[in-house]
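Let us practice reading a record.
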Amino acid sequence: MEKAERIPSVAKHRVLIVDDEDINCEILSVILSSEFETFSAHNGQEALDFLTKPDSRISAVLVDLLIPVMDGFTFMREKEKIAAIRGIPVLVLSSEASLEVESLRMGAFDFIKKPYDYPEIILARVRRIVQLYQESALIASTSTDPLTGLFTQKYFDHFTLEKAERGEDLDVLAAHSLKGVAGNLALTKLYGAASALCEKTRDASGEASLEIVSEAKELYALLRSHVATIKENL
């Protein structure tokens, strides 16, 4: 099997298998092929090179620990240094059960023990982790405005309203998203209004809390407008 070789399938999430033994790549590919498009790499460096390609679109990495050039542990450390691929979940492959705790401590999402005696369990684990990753990526893409770097207005409105309806304290959110950013940008009037809002949240409940949510939405819209103007003028 060639490095970063693709095993064709259609319209499926992509999984990268990193193992220097072709037979292990083949076994995992067969296990996963009903739901995923699989690719393979033979060492950690090949895996990093493949993941950083603009069109790789990998949703999970299954990596053996004992691979040449760059082992699995080193791969995980190096992957964490690259912002664009840092969030991609890693599942560690090993015949040494004693390495499970260390793998999880280093950031692995799961540990799959060799040999692969229970294919249904492996498929279920990969499916669950890919689902979590995709959901997280969707939330991140829809909650943050690319121009300002702040929450989108829709996300902020939804989040604050949910907190109010659950009777949760809005002070932390208001202080961080409004008062904190306004202060950092020297937006004096907005900072003062956000500070006053934080004071109101301390004793608010019921209808008063919902009124504060409305005020918070207005202030947040003003904040986003200020930040957008600042960034456009940079």
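A brief commentary: Confidence is low (pLDDT under 50) at residues 6-10.
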